[in-house]
Amino acid sequence: MHLWPCCFGGPATHPLPVLRRRAQRCLRGIFGAAALAAVCLTSAPAAFPVTAVGMPPKRPPTDAAVVWFRKCLRLHDNAALVEAVEVAPQHVCPVFVIDPHFAPGSVGVNRFAFLLESLRDLDCQLRKRYGSRLLVLRGKPETVFGSLLQTGEPVLKGKPRLLMWERDTEPYARKRDAAVEKLAEENGVEVRTFAGHTLYDPEEAIKANKGKVPNAMPAMVALAKLLGDPPMPLKTPAKLPSLPVGVPARVDKAFSVPSLEEMGYDPPPEKSSFPGGESAGLLRLSEKLKDSAYICGFQKPKTRSTAFNPPSTTGLSPYLKFGCVSARHFFYGLKNVYARKKHSQPPESLLGQLYFREIAYLQGFSVPNFERQAGNPACKPIPWGKNPKLLAAWEQGRTGFPFIDAAMRQLTRVGWLHHLARHAVACFLCRGDLWLSWEQGRDVFDKYLLDADWSINTMNWLALSGAAPWSPPFFRVYNPAPKMDSALNVQDPEGNYIREFVPELSKMPKEYIYTPWTAPLEVQKAAKCIIGKDYPRPVVDHAKVSAENIARFKRALSETKATGAKGSSGASSRSAKRPRKA
Ligand SMILES: Cc1cc2nc3c(=O)[nH]c(=O)nc-3n(C[C@H](O)[C@H](O)[C@H](O)COP(=O)(O)OP(=O)(O)OC[C@H]3O[C@@H](n4cnc5c(N)ncnc54)[C@H](O)[C@@H]3O)c2cc1C
User: Fold this and answer.
1) CA atoms of 214 and 205, how far apart (whole Å)
2) Who's near 58: CB < 8 A, 6+ residues apart?
3) Any idea where the Photolyase/cryptochrome alpha/beta domain is (predicted)?
4) Which architecture, in CATH terms, is 65-194?
5) Which is the closest atom of ligand 1 to the Cα of 452?
6) Candidates 3.30.70.600, 1.25.40.80, 3.10.290.10, 3.40.190.150; correct CATH number of 197-233+278-366?
7) What is the domain partition of the chain in residue ranges?
8) Is 315 marked as a binding-site residue?
9) pTM across the whole model
10) Reduced to 3 states, what is the DSSP secondary structure of residue 66?
11) Which residues, in sequence order, are CB contacts of 86 under 8 Å at separation 6+?
12) In testing the pocket of ligand 1, which one of 198, 417, 456 has its CB within 8 Å of the most ligand atoms?
C-alpha cells in the first residue's frame, strides 16, 4: 500500500530505512500491529520503489476494471460486476477496503463477525466460480485509492482503466465516494456507479414523484404504482476476466480476509444463528419463499415479538443491510409466490416491509439533518433530558423491567431483535419512561445491531420517539411489563424469552416473571433472585413517569406551535459531532 507520502507529506530527504521506521510507527498508531504487518509486506522496495523525491514513478496504465465492494457483498444482481464484464477489460480486480472508521469502539463484535463472514463467502465464490479472489485492502479509502488510482499499487502494476461501485446514500459514504471520485478524476481513471441497494434508484424515484418524498405507506404504494415494478435482478456473470498475472501469488497473505482478533475484537460469546454472506442469505430467502402459506399470510403486527429461535419474521435484515441479498431479488421472489395465491397487503405484508425500507431510504436521501433533531424538518423539537446512569441501565439491560432487559440483552448478545421488541425498548427510552433522546438510543442500536442501517434505524427511532410526522400518537405508550394481549404481541405467558436472556430470573414463577418486584420475599428466595440484590428494582415508576412524560410532550408541542419553531438545537447528539457509520 502506498502510504509513505501520505504519512510524511513532503519530499523524502531521509534514507529509506529511516522513512520506513517512521512510517511503521505512524501506521502502528493508526491501524495497529496486524494492519502494519500487511502494509509492510507490500512496502518493501521491490514491491514499491520510492524515488529520490519520495513519489512513486509513473507507470503505464493497466487494462483493468476495479470493482469496489462496500455493501452489495454478492455476485447476484451486482450491476458493477456485470458492467465490469461487459466492458471487457483484460483484468477485473474485486476489492474491499477495511476502513478504520468502522472499529471496535463503534461496531459491535457480532456485526463485525458478520461482515468478515460475508467477505470470506464472497472471496470463496470468486475463487470457485472464476478462479479470481477478493483483494482485501486496509486503510482510509481515500488513502488506499490515492495509491491504487495513481500507480496501481498494491494490486496492479499500473493505474486501472475503470473503477466501479454500487452507490450508497448514507452521508459518510457520500462524502467518502466524492473524495475517491475526485482522486479518480485527477488520475484520469473513469468511474462508473450504479443503484442497486434499494428497489428503486432514490434520486430517480424522487424526481419521478416531483420532489415529494413518501412518509407513509399509501404514498409509497402510490409511488411504486407510478414507477412500475423495479428493474429485474441481474444474473450472476458466468465468467469474470482474471486478475493480472502474478497478483494472486504476490498478494495472497497480505490481502486475505482478516480474523476478528486481528481487527482487535475478542471472539463473540456464542455461535450466531445469522451466519454472514450471500450463500447463507440466499439460502435463508429460498427457505422462506418455499413456504407460500407463510409468505402469503404474513401480517407483521401478528408476528410474535418474543420468538427468537427461529424468529417469527424472516430474519433477512442483516443480509439486506450488507447487500448479501438484493432487495430486488427478494421483491421478485415475493411476486412469484404471490402470483399463485391470495396474499396479505402493505403495510402488513412482506412487500409492505420492503416498502418501509424504501421509504426510509427515500427519507434519508432527502431530509436535511435526518440523523438528528437539530435542523431536521421531520423532527419536532422535544427537550429530552440527559441521564448517563439511566442510559447505561437501558443499554446494559438493567432497568428492572424484565421484558425491556431481555430485549436489550438480546441486542447486545445476538445483535438482532424483533421489530416489536425494538418498539418496546425505543418507546421506553424516549417518550414512555426515561425521557432520553432518540439519538442516543439510535446510536446504541447502531453499534450492536447486525442490521444497523443509517436510514432505517433513524426513520424508526424518529417514529418511536413520537417526534416525526410518521410517529404514532405520542400519548400511546407501551407498558414495559406487557400483558399477553398487548400490541407488543408478546404471547409468552411462561416468560421463556425473559428466562433465556435474563438468566437471573430463570426460576421466577410465571406469575411474576414480567413484574418480579411484586413477588413476595419467600418467592424471590425460592427463585434465588432477590430483587434489588440479584436483579434490579425498576429504575422508574412507569405509571407515574409515563403520565408526566405525556404532559411534557404535550407542553413541548404547544410551545412549538406558539413560537412556530422548527427543529431544535437542544438535544444532545453524539452523531452531530461525528459522521455516522454504514
Ligand atoms: C427503533 C427501531 C430501530 C430499527 N432499526 C433498524 C435497523 O437499523 N436496520 C433494519 O434493517 N431495520 C431496523 N428496524 C426495522 C425492523 O425492526 C427490522 O427491519 C426488522 O425487525 C428486521 O427483521 P426481519 O428481517 O425479520 O424483518 P421482516 O419483517 O422479515 O421484514 C423484511 C425486511 O423488510 C425491511 N423492514 C422491515 N420492517 C421495516 C421497518 N419498520 N422499516 C424499514 N424497513 C423494514 C427490512 O429490511 C427487513 O429485513 C428498526 C425498527 C425500530 C422500531
Assistant:
1) 10
2) none
3) 63-199
4) 3-Layer(aba) Sandwich (3.40)
5) 8
6) 1.25.40.80
7) 65-194, 197-233+278-366, 388-527
8) yes
9) 0.89
10) strand
11) none
12) 456
Q: Is the pLDDT confidence value at 479 over 80? A: yes
Q: What cell was used for 446?
A: 447502531
Q: How far apart are CA 61 and CA 150, in angstroms?
A: 9
Contact 84, 92 (CB under 8 A): yes
Summarize pLDDT for 296-313 with one digit per residue, the tens: 999 999 999 999 999 999
Residue 317 annotated as lining a ligand binding site: yes
Query: Which among 500, 497, 498, 542 has a CA at the least distance from the CA of 516?
Result: 498
Query: For the chain, how far is it from start to end, CA to CA, in angstroms?
Result: 24
Grid look-up 438482532 returns 416
* CA-proximal residue: ligand 1, atom 20 (nearest): 419
Give the model confidence (pLDDT) of 520-538 as tens digits. Answer: 999 999 999 999 999 999 9
Least confident of 128-142, 194-208, 531-545, 557-571: 557-571
Residues near ligand 1 (Cβ within 6 A): 300, 311, 313-317, 320-321, 350, 353-354, 356-357, 360, 418-419, 422-423, 426, 445, 449, 451-453, 456-457, 460-461, 464
Whether the bond into 347 is cis, omega within 30 of 0: yes
The closest residue, in CA terms, to atom 49 on ligand 1 is 317
Pairing mode, if any, of strands 64-69 and 91-98? parallel
**pLDDT surpasses 80 at 18:** no
Q: How far apart are CA 249 and CA 230, in angstroms?
A: 41
* pLDDT of amino acid 465: 98
Q: Which has more confidence, 137 or 56?
A: 137
Distance CA 194, CA 169 (A): 11
Cell of 573: 447528539
Domain 388-527 has CATH 1.10.3720.10: no
The number of the ligand 1 atom at minimal distance from the alpha carbon of 311 is 26
